[in-house]
Design a protein that fits this description.
The chain is α+β, with helices and mostly antiparallel strands and 96 residues long. The protein is 30% helix and 32% strand. The termini are far apart. 16% of the residues are buried.
Length: 96
Amino acid sequence: MNAIKIDINNPDFLTEWGRLQLKEHQALISTFKKIQQYTWQQLYIVKGLHWEKITSTGETKLYSFRFSQKYRATGYRDNNILVMVNLHVDHDSAYK
C-alpha cells in the first residue's frame, strides 16, 4: 500500500496555517494523519472527510475536504502527494 504524502509548502496554505486557532490546528494535523493511512482509491470514497472535487484544469483536479466544523482545505494530487493549496473558514469560499 502506498501511503499518501502531504506537501504543505504552498505560501498561501502556510499563511492560513499560521492563523489557525489551536483547536483547528490540531484537527488539521489529525486529518493529515488519517489521510496518510489511506490509498488514493480509499480517499476518494471515505465519507468522513467530505472529499469533493471542486474543479479540473487539464490534468490538475482541485479537491476540498473538511477537517473541522469551521474549516475546509483545498489541495490537488501530484502523483502520490496531496499538495495543499489553501484553508477556508467559510466553507463556500473553498469553491470559488
